[in-house]
Amino acid sequence: MINEILAYLTQRNDYIIWAGYAQFAHLGIKPSPDVDIYVKSEDSLKEISKDFVEKGWKVIHQPKAISALWDKLEKNGVTFDIMYSEPASIFFEDRVLLKINENEVLCISKEALFLTKMGALTSKGRVEDKRKRDLNAILQLREIIDPEKVKEIVKRLPDSYWKIGWV
Predict the structure, then answer these.
(1) Phi and psi dihedrals of 39, rounded to 5?
(2) Residue boundaries of the structural domains of the chain
(3) What is the rounded distance in angstroms from the CA atom of residue 146 to the CA atom of residue 62?
(4) Tell me, which fold does domain 2-157 have in CATH?
(5) How many of the other CB atoms lie within 10 Å of CB of 56?
(6) Sign of CA dihedral 26, 107, 84, 82
(7) Alpha-carbon gap, residue 17 to 98, rounded angstroms
(8) Torsion-angle region of 48 (φ positive above 0: left; ψ -120 to 50: alpha; else: beta)
(9) pLDDT tens column, 103-141
(10) Cα–Cα distance, 116 to 12 (Å, whole number)
């Protein structure tokens, strides 16, 4: 199921993988069986969701967050979170092409991943298991990030990052 998602994404350029699979791509930390992406528009969210529903995936959640719209799809225990967030568009400027399971996909940069992991670590309701993974990722990323790139991204971060830990 993961390879189905990744292979599909190789045909698009309107997304970035973030969270666990970006962490896997940058650091090799084993992810949970889900892929999280930001997309560039609501239309992209609708199109990708429709394509996966046609492939037998089920929409299990369509929450409306403070600054985002997203669909959570599921098939055989694998989840695929497709999010559109206007504030998250800042991360598209720094995306990188990385190989995951023989698929070249667009991922959030390691500097942006560092900042999103710091935000997640301090967000309300974060479960302890995820906090431990976040901290591990932050410590590893500190060794490989470019501080100047982090500073540039910090200048572009929206208020939602500083207030709730998410964009």
Answers:
(1) -120, 160
(2) 2-157
(3) 36
(4) Beta Polymerase; domain 2 (3.30.460)
(5) 10
(6) negative
(7) 10
(8) alpha
(9) 999 999 999 999 999 988 888 888 999 899 999 999 999
(10) 23
